[in-house]
Amino acid sequence: MWKPLLFFSVWLNLTVPLQLTAVFTIFQPLLAVDKSGIIMLGLLLLSTIANVYLATRVWMRIEDRLYKRKHFM
Description:
By secondary structure, the protein is mostly helical.
């Protein structure tokens, strides 16, 4: 129970700052046009969903390897 929680907390703490820097650097001209911030919130939501999906896929692979080695949680 504690291993997935630890993995997700470490994963998100490491990748979210890098992800936000990359997304907002790439889409800076688009964000400069929008004064309300709706586009920024949409980009933030989409990139966070993608990051959580990627973390879930990585954890599933790690979990499969643990079960194959008989190192259960």
